[in-house]
Amino acid sequence: xxxxxxxxxxxxxxxxxxxxxxxxxxxxxxxxxxxxxxxxxxxxxxxxxxxxxxxxxxxxxxxxxxxxxxxxxxxxxxxxxxxxxxxxxxxxxxxxxxxxxxxxxxxxxxxxxxxxxxxxxxxxxxxxxxxxxxxxxxxxxxxxxxxxxxxxxxxxxxxxxxxxxxxxxxxxxxxxxxxxxxxxxxxxxxxxxxxxxxxxxxxxxxxxxxxxxxxxxxxxxxxxxxxxxxxxxxxxxxxxxxxxxxxxxxxxxxxxxxxxxxxxxxxxxxxxxxxxxxxxxxxxxxxxxxxxxxxxxxxxxxxxxxxxxxxxxxxxxxxxxxxxxxxxxxxxxxxxxxxxxxxxxxxxxxxxxxxxxxxxxxxxxxxxxxxxx
Length: 373
What we know:
Layout: H1 8-18, H2 21-28, H3 33-43, H4 54-61, E1 67-68, E2 90-93, H5 98-102, E3 105-110, H6 116-131, E4 135-138, H7 144-154, E5 160-163, H8 176-184, E6 188-191, H9 201-214, E7 217-222, H10 228-238, E8 243-245, H11 255-262, E9 267-268, H12 272-277, E10 282-285, E11 294-299, E12 305-313, E13 337-339, E14 351-353, E15 357-361
Parallel strand pairs: 3-4, 3-7, 4-5, 5-6, 7-8, 8-9
Antiparallel strand pairs: 1-2, 2-6, 10-15, 11-12, 11-15, 13-14
């Protein structure tokens, strides 16, 4: 079929079946998806691509589920944050519900073989999130993720599943009933991979990144360092998604949490209430922080958040370098300086240059106190 006769949807589906988005980003910046497909076919010495029939393959695959592309109304615009790694499209079951679900999605993820404490926490976090109207988003994996889906179901709320395989089946296979219940209860499932694709190490890693990109915030309940769930957390850091890590327990299975908290890449909290605040977090100038705002982190020029070990409620006060607290006298930066509290966790003033950026949750979005004053 000539490139000009190939629809953008079929071309994107064909390209995504054979290449990663990053492999195509440069070409797609210059050519249409149909043109890129034609160029790839001509450059393929094996003849494998020439024998692929994009329109017919798309029609067959969409017998199972539709392929949603960026020009569709249902497309999650947050995926644009992935830049060159943004998917060419998503295979979706529950397409009509996707915009509403992704608009309030919070990822809950962790170990496939969690500790008993982690399983309890996963249930508590997911229950609180669902009860507050957020969409619990997770994989169907054993352990923390499937516990989160089940907790959301118990509240009567729909959840969103991200699968590392085609949507003609579940991963793991034993969770096929869980997938059906998610879809039957108004939830949705998404995948980067066309029906018939099996899970692999590569699909697990790519889907872990997708999980973070779809979410407004990520909660890492418990993770052994270097497991798939950690890739979700690390993608959240790269994408500047608010990230909460439940406290490390000393068990090796929470070594990933321990590292992220120690490096202040994640906010540390055992309390589900703080997790409810994260989807509402935004970056603001220190000089614009209002009384009652929840302070989560300092934000560098690159947008990366350096989370406070103990988030606290702001109570801005005039700056007085002679106050005697032992901190204000150290401020030498010219320009506006604001003291965000004298009652912060360090029991001293907390002065900031007015133009410094902070990750906050506005007091207007806090329905109750998430932390003790």
